[in-house]
Amino acid sequence: MHASLAVHVGDWIRTEILEPYNIKVNTVAEHFGVSRQSISALLNGRSNLSADMAIRFEKAFGVRADTLMRMQSAFELAQARAHEANLNVQHFNLVAPSRTEQRTI
């Protein structure tokens, strides 16, 4: 996925779940038993979705936690792919050991 197509899961939650129903950050934070800052950071893309938080959203809004986690993972991978050319790593050439080498190990 191209980085320009990737959407942070927090942005998706905000626009697709909270805003249409006029649900406030404070309300979600109180309902989940977490700080307003942690919800705000997620919704504004300043923090990533944890598995625990994904389960909270699943329980509260019915959106599967594994779907939310896949969205988060796709976003992170797209961000990494955007700068992968800067990662100076060469392919590791694997050579299977011969049978005699296997016996001595």
Q: Which sheet architecture does the biggest sheet show?
A: none
Indicate the CATH architecture.
Answer: Orthogonal Bundle
Provide the CATH topology.
434 Repressor (Amino-terminal Domain)
Q: What is the number of helical segments per DSSP (H or I, 4+ residues)? A: 6
Average of per-residue pLDDT values: 92
The number of distinct β-strands equals 0
Based on CA atoms alone, the radius of gyration comes out at 20 Å
List the helices and strands in order: HHHHHH
Q: Can you say what the CATH homologous superfamily is?
A: lambda repressor-like DNA-binding domains
Helix content: 55-70%
What count of structural domains?
A: 1
Specify the CATH class: Mainly Alpha
Outline the low-pLDDT stretches. none
| Portion in beta strands | under 5%
Which structural category fits the helices and strands? Answer: mainly alpha
N/C terminus separation: 42 Å
Shape: elongated
Protein name: HigA family addiction module antidote protein
Pfam families: HTH_3
GO molecular function: DNA binding
Keywords: DNA-binding
Describe the structure.
- There is one protein chain.
- With 105 residues, the protein is mostly helical.
- The protein is built from six helices and no strands.
- Helix 2 (25-32) crosses helix 3 and helix 4 packs across helix 5 (65-81).
- The mean pLDDT is 92.
